Amino acid sequence: MNLPHHLSKHFIEVHNGGNWAGSNSKDRIADITLEEANTKVYSCNTIASLIFHVNYYDAAVTQVLRGGQLDASDKLS
């Protein structure tokens, strides 16, 4: 198995299941309602905000792995 294939396989498994940890993002948030995802608890980020940050980071990294420029910004994330 070559490195790009291995990286992409692991990346997909972390989000959709089948990884070595036995846990994944998709299953963890499957039963959360939109109201719950947008509920702020104390000064912590909401679940929706955290998922947005993960997706933003994933898109930036994917672009770099495809040979593109890293154009992500902390103030946009």
What does this structure look like?
By secondary structure, this protein is mainly alpha-helical. Helix content is 55%, strand content 0%. It has a domain at 30-77. The chain has helices at 3-16, 25-29, 34-37, 47-65. The protein is flat and about 45 Å long. The mean pLDDT is 84.
What labels would you give this structure?
single chain; 77 residues; mainly alpha
Give the structure's gist in a few sentences.
With 77 residues, the chain is mostly helical. The chain starts with a helix and ends in a 12-residue tail after the last helix.
Number of helices: 4
- Terminal Cα span: 33 Å
How much is the radius of gyration in Å? 15 Å
Largest sheet: none
Structural class: mainly alpha
Provide the residue-averaged pLDDT: 84
Shape: flat
Counted beta strands: 0
Helix content: 40-55%
Compile the SSE list and pairings.
Layout: H1 3-16, H2 25-29, H3 34-37, H4 47-65
